[in-house]
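Reviewer 2 asked us to include a model.

Predict the structure of this chain.
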Amino acid sequence: MITNRTIKSPAIAVFVVLLLVSLAATYLIASRGLQAGWTILLISAAVVFVTAVMRNYRLGFYFVFIMGVFMFYMDRVAQIEFPMGTVYDALIALIFCCLFLDNRNNDWTTFKNPVTITFFILIAYQVLQLFNPNATSAFAWLVSLRNNTSFLIYVVAFQMFSSLKEVKRFTTIWILAAVVVSLYGIHQKIFGLSEAEMAWLTEVPDRIKLYINWGELRVFSFMNDPSSYGLFTAMTSLATLVLALGPFKTGVKLGYGLLTIFLLVAMSYSGTRTALAMVAVGAVFYIIIMLHNRKTLFASAVIVFIGLVLLFGPFYGGTMSRLRSTFRASEDPSMAIRDYKRVRFQEYIQTHPIGGGLNSVGNLGFRYSPGHELAGEWEPDSGYLLTALESGWIGLIIFQGLFFAVLVLGINNFFAIDDPVLKTYILVYIVPFMALSVAHFTQDAMFTKPMNVVVFSTYALIFKIPSFQKKLFSVELV
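Predicted model (C-alpha cells):
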C-alpha cells in the first residue's frame, strides 16, 4: 500500500544528498579552487548517471549519442585536459554490461546473420594484427582495441530497437540533434565565433587555414570540424528527404520537406564538398530503389531539378564556389592531394597484404608507432586508404565486405516487406549509409562521432525493422 510516507522518503533522501553535495562543492571551491568543486559535482553526476543506466540501458544509449554531438564543443569551450574519448568508450562498455542486467527477455532470433558473422571476422582479424611483423608497437595495437566498441553499440542497438516506436524515437532524437547543430552552425555563420572558439581556432597556426576558405569561415558548429558538421547534416537531410516522400499525412511530409531544405542550407555553410556529393549519391540511390513508385519518382525528380538550379544557377559566393568545385574534381587541389596519396601508397598496399599494423599511419602512427615508415604528421584522408595501409588489402576486403552485406541485406529486406511505413524507415537508414560509404572514399566518414552511432544502429535495424511486420501480422490474426 502506497502512503504519503512512502512517497516522501525518496524525496527526502534525494534532498539530503543534493544538500550534502552542494555543501561539499561550496567548501571545495572556497578552499581549493573552482576545479575541485567541479570535480565533486561531476563525480556526483556520474554516480546518478550510472545508477540510471543500470536501471535502463536505453538512457545510456541516447546519452552516448548526444555526447557524441556535443563533446567536441565542450572540449573547446572548457579548455580542460579531460579524456572525453576514453569516457565515451567507457560509457559504451557500461551500457553493454547493463544490457544484460535488464529484466526484459532479449530477442536474439535474427542476431545470427551475415552482418554479425562478418563483424566477428573483422574483429578476429584485428586481434590477429598483434602478430603483424610489420607493426612496431604493441601499445598501438592495444589502443586500437577501443575501436571494437563499435560491436558493443551494434549489440545494444540490436536489443534496444525492439519496436517501431523505439526506432521512431531514436530517429526523432537524431533529427532534433541535427537541427540544433544546424541552428548553431547558422549562428556561427551570421554572428561569427565566440571568444573561446576563436581562441581555439588560432591556437594552432595551420588550423585557421583549414577553417577559412575562399575568404569565408567554414562552419563547424558543435562538431569536431567542418567536415564532420557537413557530413552529419548531409546524412540527416537524406533521412528527412526519405520521410518527406514517405506514406504520411500531407502536413507531416511538408514539415520533413522544409527540414530537408533547412539542413541542406546549413550543410552548405560547412564548405564540405564531400557532403554535397553525399546528398547527390543518396538522392540517386533513393530514386533507383523507388523506380517502381511513380509519385515518389516524380517528387524526387523535382527535388533533383531544384538542386541542379541551385548548383548551376546565377548564385555566387565563397560557399557556392567551393561546393560547385565538387563536380570539377580534376581541378580541385585537395582532391589532387588525395589522389597523390592514394597512388603513392599503392605499391605499399600491394606488397603488404596484412598492412603495416594498427595505429601506424599518419598522425596516430606518429603518436603510437614512432619510427614506423607510415608514421608522420599527415592524414590519409580516405577511410578506405587508412584501412588498406593499416590492415592491408585483406583487411580492406573484409571491411568492405561488411558494408556490402549491410547494403545488400538492407535492400533485400526493403523489397521483402509490404508495410509502407516499415519500408520507409529502412530507407531512412540505408540511404544515408550508402552515401556515407561513398564519402568514406575521400574522408574518414563512417566512424566519426556522432555518425558512428547511426551507422552501427543501421547494421541492426536492417534486420529488426522487417521483424516488426511479423509482429504486426500476428497481432492482426489475434
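Confidence is low (pLDDT under 50) at residues 1-8, 473-478. The longest helix spans residues 383-416. We have added this to the supplementary material.
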